[in-house]
Structure formats: C-alpha cells, structure tokens
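DM from R.C. (forwarded with permission)

"hey, sorry to bug you on a friday — could you get me a structure for this? deadline for the figure draft is monday and I only need the backbone to look sensible"
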Amino acid sequence: EILPGQTLALVGPTGAGKTSIGNLVARFYDVTEGAVLIDGIDVRSIKQHDLHRQIGLVPQDSFLFSGTIADNIRFGRPDASDEEVMEAARSANAHEFIIAKPEGYMTRVQEGASNLSVGQRQLVCIARAILADPRILIMDEATSNVDSLTESLIQDALRNLLSVRTSVVIAHRLSTILNASRICVVDKGRIVETGKHEELLA
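My reply, with the result:
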C-alpha cells in the first residue's frame, strides 16, 4: 500500500522484478493473480487512456522523438503555453542548456536524440513529467551514465518532481533511497523486506 504523497523506492538486484511492479501499476500488462488498485479501483476496470492521463513515467532510457525540444516537453500536455513549457524546464534544471542552444526551445531533436547528451535527454523527460503534472509518478531512476554535475542537476529536478505526488521509484543510487518514505527490497519477484533506510540498515 502506498499512501497519497508517499515515495516508495524499489531496490534489489537486476531481474528481481522492480520494473515489472512499475509496469503493472501503469498497466502495460495485467496481473495474473490479485489486483492493482488505485483509490480502491481495479486498474483493469479503467480505460487505458484515462489511466495513463493520471500517471507519469520517467524511464531509465529516456525516449525523445523527432520534433523540437518544446514539442518533446509538451508531449503529455499539447495545449500547454510556451511559458508553462519554460517553467517546467526550469523546475527540471533543463532551461539553461536549452537556451544555450542557437535555436533554444525550437531546437530540433535529431534521430536518436544524438544532438543531446544522456543527461540532457533525461532532464527533458523530467520536464515533460513536471508539465504533465500526473497524480502518480513511476520512475526508473536514471542517473546512471552521467557525470557528477549532471547527476546533481537531475537529483535536484527529481526532488521538485517527487515532492508533491505519489511516486514509485526504481532506485539504483543511494541518494534517491535516502529520501523515500518507504523502501521495498525486491528479490526473485517477491518483496522480502520493507522499511525506511535506517531500519533496513539496522
């Protein structure tokens, strides 16, 4: 059970089932036993479109499509104003690198987002999630393969994103786990321990 506004971290070895839990909440596939309930409602009784309007996803491998940086940030809210797009980018620590580009927010993302670094792509994805303002956030934490400065920018942006919503964070780095309301240790498809960071250390 995850209470409103809580951040639940899932930790454990590769292949333990952490990402599967996130995928079940988002209903990318359905459970074969039991049920996933949001506010007491079985997600299988909700239209996918309606469910996905309430859920934001920041994957480990950030996906950007061809189009401008602004288009990518607007993905979850196509009607957002330019000012709202920029405000989301500021909250995600993406604004500075975007305006440093010759075409700013109108910079076209090349195939495979090859004209953006891994960290910049991640910041754009976080800005997208902030703008969409979902009630529930699922995040496959994505600070691997970035330098320490970019990691600190991402961590700061994640604090902005996580602070006001219910979140499931698949955690690979200690810094995210420390701030979680609760941590679940996943092993071979089962939750084997749960508690706060200091409780689990003890």
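R.C.: lifesaver. Residues 118-132 form the longest helix (15 residues).
me: no worries. DSSP finds nine helices and ten strands in the chain.
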